[in-house]
Design goal:
Elements lengths: L14 H13 L3 H11 L3 H8 L3 H8 L6 H10 L22 E2 L7 H22 L12 E2 L2 E2 L8 H11 L10 H7 L3 E4 L13 E3 L6 E4 L7 H17 L8 H15 L2 H4 L9 H11 L3 H10 L5 H16 L18 H11 L4 H8 L3 H8 L12
Parallel strand pairs: 4-6
Antiparallel strand pairs: 1-5, 2-3, 5-6
Helix pairs in contact: 2-6, 3-4, 6-15, 7-10, 9-10, 13-14
InterPro entries: Cro/C1-type_HTH (IPR001387), IrrE_HExxH (IPR010359), Lambda_DNA-bd_dom_sf (IPR010982), Rad_response_metalloprotease (IPR052345)
Protein name: Zn-dependent peptidase ImmA, M78 family
Family: Belongs to the short-chain fatty acyl-CoA assimilation regulator (ScfR) family.
Length: 390
């Protein structure tokens, strides 16, 4: 009688195969990808070194060109939550220097978070590039912009004049802009609104760059409890893209110019000035606020700017506003109620590519990204429960 055959379980990833894969990554190891992965993880070289049991100097050498041993390569990928293939060359990569982005809150933004924000923006571009190989995205239509550069001579240096130029270029006239973020996306700008740095995202605030093949504006969810502030922030970053091709992050002059641009873009002086009340009237400003999509605070400032009210009346108006808000009046309205102010370009581009055969897993493998990271980049993070009609 023959003994029963023994069931043999075969390892689907034999050690030899895994070793060969790691060797292939080592042969094409890209130090810049290691730096990018480390910054995305928000880790210092010392933190990575401690996790691996090596010296910070060793990690520094890897980031300047020395290839890690295979066991270190596998472990560092695990620590940084990427696949080993992420650390290899062989796919498009647009490198962005931190000095090329406009960070509004530069002094209060830790350097590690700025580095994480830059690495995130690089990944946004990679995702955009991957989708653009399959889907025709709206062409970039920004005065003076071409291939990651802005011609300074194409846009007036005066912020208000630049805002009027953009309105004319985009055919917006002097009317209120109903959906600013959607308008930006329709003209080829990439806008994102995701917690790319987790709980630390609030420390970064909005930022933008025109030094990639497509301009990128990164808005942060911590400000979305107020749709009017959110719209002003988007307009502010748009001002940086047009006015400040030579970025000087945190520069107070550039910040002031971007504010002036945003005010004129959202509330053109020639159109809104005749509508401002001749005396301080918060009810009238509340109605104008909803019509123009700006905060009452912004309109109070506009009243003072055009000399409708005195400095004393200006201060009293803000005191009164604060009192009323403490009573639950003039409440902030969240962005969730305004779909036109939430970015959709990347998510809809993937949806169209998916209809033509692109699977989410295929895209994740192409970019060497975890599925959760790819969903984040696509903006698939709406916190509201979804109503399904059957």
């Amino acid at each position: 009688m023959k003994p029963p055959e023994q069931l043999r379980l075969v390892d689907p990833h034999p050690a030899g195969t895994q070793s060969a894969r790691l060797q292939a990554v080592a042969d094409a190891f890209d130090p810049a990808r290691l730096t990018q992965a480390r910054r995305l993880a928000g880790l210092t070289k010392r933190a990575v070194a401690d996790a691996l049991g090596v010296s910070p100097a060793a990690v520094g050498q890897w980031e300047t060109g020395t290839t890690p041993r295979l066991d270190h390569l596998a472990r560092v990928a695990e620590v940084l939550d990427v696949s080993p293939g992420f650390l290899a060359a062989g796919r498009p990569y647009a490198r962005l220097d931190a000095s090329a982005a406009h960070f509004r809150s530069l002094r209060s933004t830790p350097a590690a978070q700025r580095a994480k924000a830059i690495a995130f923006t690089e990944q946004v571009w990679e995702l955009t590039h991957a989708l653009e190989k399959r889907i025709q995205l709206p062409p970039v239509d920004l005065p003076g912009f071409s291939g990651g550069e802005v011609d300074a001579g194409a846009v007036p240096a005066d912020p208000a004049a630049a805002a009027r130029l953009l309105r004319d270029h985009w055919g917006l006239g002097r009317e209120p802009i109903p959906h600013l973020v959607r308008t930006m996306e329709a003209h080829g700008l990439i806008v994102t609104l995701v917690p790319f740095a987790g709980a630390e995202t609030a420390k970064v605030d909005a930022f933008s760059t025109s030094q990639l093949p497509r301009p990128v504006v990164v808005l942060t969810p911590d400000r979305t409890n107020d749709v009017y502030h959110h719209r002003f922030t988007a307009a502010h970053e748009l001002g940086h893209l047009l006015l400040h091709h030579d970025a000087n992050p945190g520069d107070p002059v550039q910040e002031k110019e971007a504010h002036a641009f945003a005010a004129e873009l959202l509330t053109p002086r020639e159109a809104v000035e005749p509508q401002l009340p001749s005396r301080m009237d918060l009810n009238a400003l509340d109605r104008l606020s909803r019509e123009w999509g700006v905060g009452v605070n912004s309109l109070v400032y506009r009243c003072r700017e055009v000399n409708v009210i005195s400095d004393a009346a200006y201060r009293r108006a803000f005191q009164r506003l604060n009192q009323l808000r403490q009573l639950g009046l003039f409440k902030k309205e969240p962005v969730e109620g305004y779909p036109g102010e939430r970015p959709v370009l990347l998510r809809r581009a993937f949806g169209l590519a998916e209809q033509h055969g692109l699977a989410l897993r295929e895209l994740a493998d192409e970019l060497h990204l975890p599925m959760a990271r790819l969903r984040l980049l696509l903006g698939d993070d709406d916190p509201r429960p979804e109503l399904r009609l059957v």
